[in-house]
Amino acid sequence: MKKEKATIHDIARKLNITASTVSRALKDHPRISAETKKAVQKTAQKLNYQPNHIAAALRNGKSKIIGIIVPTADRSFFSSVVRGIEEIANGSQYNVMICQTYDNYEKEVATVEALLNARVDGVIASHGKETQNFDHFLKIKERGIPLILFDRSNDELEVSSVVIDDFLGAYKATEHLIQQGCRRIAHFTNTRKISIFKERLRGYREALLDNKLPYDETLVIESNLQLEDGRSSTEQLLKLRERPDGIFSASALSIVGALQVLKENNIAVPDQVALVGFSNETYTSFTDPSLSTVEQHSMRIGNAAAEIFLEEVNADQKKFIPQKIVLKPELIIRQSSLRKK
Amino acid sequence: MKKEKATIHDIARKLNITASTVSRALKDHPRISAETKKAVQKTAQKLNYQPNHIAAALRNGKSKIIGIIVPTADRSFFSSVVRGIEEIANGSQYNVMICQTYDNYEKEVATVEALLNARVDGVIASHGKETQNFDHFLKIKERGIPLILFDRSNDELEVSSVVIDDFLGAYKATEHLIQQGCRRIAHFTNTRKISIFKERLRGYREALLDNKLPYDETLVIESNLQLEDGRSSTEQLLKLRERPDGIFSASALSIVGALQVLKENNIAVPDQVALVGFSNETYTSFTDPSLSTVEQHSMRIGNAAAEIFLEEVNADQKKFIPQKIVLKPELIIRQSSLRKK
DNA sequence: TTATATTGCGCAACCGATTACACATTATGT
DNA sequence: ACATAATGTGTAATCGGTTGCGCAATATAA
Predict the structure, then answer these.
(1) Contact residues on chain A for B51, CB-CB shorter than 8 A
(2) Is the CATH number of domain B60-164+301-326 3.40.50.2300?
(3) Residue B153 has what pLDDT?
(4) Are A209 and A175 in contact (CB under 8 A)?
């Protein structure tokens, strides 16, 4: 039953020509006659020939595969980015190999190793939360393989990156809360020193100050930003003598936690406390009230990353200067922050 | 800057031995002396040697890559399955290549082609909703490459599969609604003739009949089971003279739509209408009330699929008989179906 | 008509690792 | 002491395409 896979040599034998001619014919080489090309194509069809990418990859030193490293594909944000990458990549005959690190540093290092051994032509990655040391990414760079970081990037690495303007997103979100009448706005941020969270914190702070509101550190709560963290952070806020009347969270999950706790305490959202999160995950529109959030245009992030990759592989090794693309986020206002006037 | 990648030949030259000895030393071949092995390992380290999997793949005819085909990774169910596969696969030095078809038939066919050309050692797949013709999967089988289907499987294909007992899941869900006092239970099912949906419908039907409740076709609504479909289906139900007092949906998204519409119409959930969905997606616990659902133990599905793959690759070509693993689902009861007695 | 281009295709090396087979050396058995 | 076995390493082919170089045949130019 197992069909013997045909090679170009099989085709060549059948036509009494050489494999090199077949190879050229299949690639539409200008020096091959039209008849030969037609004949080759016909027999290729007949023999059910499927090119062996591995052989080509070995010879060419390029696998036509882009490695993608994400913490998890199980999030609208990351899966949309992947989709955005695929859109562009497939158009240029590249396939993608998606790898999940589950935010685990060891797994991330192992993944880079695996992709390197698989000889991918490029890597598009967003590193995990644990990642402090970037030697594994450096290794990719040293190999001369294009590396593009997105969302969570690292400026010291001197590689191209695609990010959104986290500062702006946070600024808009906070400003919106202020416009809705909030005067004591809390902020959930991450304990780690990841730039996106630092930027979001900065945006929050600036918006407050620009609107003559005090920046109060007791209202800034650090955590891992998961659901449970959102819950406990909110409980912490409720214990304050002066409770906040708005929360802007740097994540999507933690604001869900906040909403849960507020409802359990019979605190009206958005009237007593208005909420805005970050990242337009599916579930943010399913809660009651639905959650306002910062949309990151993840598909476009993927598009941009893939485009940079294509530029880099096609550029001369040395000439390429790392570029940083910053996309503008958009505030999506839903019920959790829209007070009736 | 671009480090020249070292090969076994470089190591060999440095040690005045041949590449074959190096190759053997690295693979811990019994006929190589301990000293040589040590020396090889040391210089491999020094030269920062990374094995070229592509070369090995070409020679061995095995890439050590498992191709995974899913409609989308952006769902807890599929991403958990992938995780389950990775758990097992990584333990046996296999890497995975995740491909998304977005439920698009052409993309699915192209993906199979791509994986075949990439010479993956096996394919674990869940086909798209559009897929009626399975010739592309047949092609994998004909190549002698292990193919394991999960969730959405196809019995005619005669390949191994891992599924859950959809009948049982649906039966349990429906029975639970009956126990909660529901007497007119509606069901959302898919228009396509996909077996999982047929089985769920059957489970629903059996549970009704076993409990002496009539099976009423006007309460069974076919759609694509997306959010909007859930909304319109529910609106349709509300127009009935005799409204249902419970809904069991074969999908997670559509039951969210149902909840939305019921709330908009001030119908109490679960007291007036109780709801149960299928698939324990993240968001099902974030709605208000939270949604009861059928948990599919997706991680285990992935584990099982990967295990079958390993058995198949290690088995003699012909000896392997396709096996079908059926896992038991579990009913998760949340607020949307739990009536206070 | 002779010189130069162009066309069409073959030859053979190559990518990097793997492995059957061969061979020399040393160890073990009787 | 001699036959046999075990040990350690080298030789060379192989996986399937790709491509620089070369050569002959035909076409174009001068």
Answers:
(1) 117
(2) yes
(3) 86
(4) no
